C-alpha cells in the first residue's frame, strides 16, 4: 500500500448523485485528503479555476451538464496536466471507456481500498 504524503493534494469529487458524492467525500477525507465536491463538470471547472491546491480529480462518468466525466477528464488533463485523474462508473465498463492516457478507471461499486491506494499513488508522484 502506498503511503499518503504528509501534505497530500486536495481531491475534487465530481458526482451528480448527492449520497454517492457524500460517501466518496467521507471515504477520501477518512484517508487523510482534503476535498472539494461538485455535482457537475461545469461546477468542477469553476472550483478548479479558484483552488490551486487541487491535485486529484475523482469523477463519475454519467452526469448532467455540458460534459460528462470522460470529457471532463480530457479537459482537465489538457488544462491542468499536473492534476491526477480517477474515473469511476457504474454504466461505462472498461471496454467502452475512452479515457485520456494515464487516467485510472474503476467500475462501480468500487472497493474503497483500491480507490485509496490509487489516490496515494497519485499523491506520491506529485511535487509537494
Structure described in brief:
By secondary structure, the protein is of the alpha/beta class.
Question: How would you describe what is shown here?
Answer:
The protein has 128 residues and is α/β, with parallel strands linked by helices. The protein has a single domain, classed as Response regulator (Rossmann fold, 3-Layer(aba) Sandwich). The protein is 38% helix and 20% strand. It contains four helices and five strands. The chain has a five-stranded parallel sheet with strand order 2-1-3-4-5, sandwiched between helices. The longest helix has 14 residues, at 112-125. The chain is globular and about 35 Å long. The two termini are 20 Å apart. The model has no long low-confidence stretch (mean pLDDT 89).
Amino acid at each position: 500500500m502506498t503511503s499518503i504524503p504528509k501534505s497530500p493534494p486536495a481531491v475534487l469529487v465530481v458526482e451528480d448523485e448527492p449520497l454517492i458524492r457524500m460517501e466518496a467525500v467521507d471515504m477520501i477525507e477518512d484517508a487523510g485528503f482534503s476535498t472539494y465536491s461538485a455535482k457537475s463538470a461545469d461546477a468542477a471547472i469553476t472550483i478548479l479555476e479558484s483552488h490551486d491546491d487541487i491535485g486529484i480529480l475523482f469523477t463519475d462518468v454519467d452526469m448532467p451538464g455540458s460534459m460528462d466525466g470522460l470529457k471532463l477528464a480530457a479537459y482537465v488533463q489538457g488544462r491542468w496536466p499536473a492534476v491526477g485523474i480517477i474515473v469511476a462508473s457504474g454504466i461505462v465498463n472498461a471496454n467502452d471507456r475512452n479515457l485520456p492516457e494515464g487516467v485510472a478507471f474503476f467500475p462501480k461499486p468500487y472497493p474503497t481500498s483500491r480507490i485509496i491506494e490509487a489516490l496515494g499513488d497519485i499523491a506520491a508522484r506529485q511535487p509537494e
